Amino acid sequence: MSKKYHIETSPVPPRCARVGKYGIVDWREDCARCHNCVKKACVYDRHRQELEYIRNLNEVDALFFDCMGCFSCVQECTKGLLSLSRNPVYERMGNTYWTPDIIHTTWLQAESAKIPVSGAGYRGRFSGPGFDSMWTDMSEIVRPTRDGIHGREYISTSVDIGRKPAFLTFDVGESSTTMGTIVDNPMPLIIDMMPSEYSLPTLEPAILAAAKNTELIALIDARQWPQLCETAMPYLKHIAFYLENGAALIEPEILKQTRLVEISDGNDVVKRIADIKNIHPQIVVAVRVELTSHGIERAIKLGQMDIEVIHLVADLNGNEIGTDTPRFLKDMVRHIHNALIEKGHRDEVTLIAGGGIALAEHMAKGIICGADLVSINLPLLVGLECHLCKRCEPGMSCPAKLDNVETDYCVGRMTNLIAAWHGQLTEVMGAMGMREIRRLRGEVGRAMFYEDLEEQIFGKLFGSRKPA
Ligand code: SF4
Ligand code: SF4
Question: What homologous superfamily does CATH list for 159-455?
Answer without folding.
Answer: Aldolase class I (3.20.20.70)
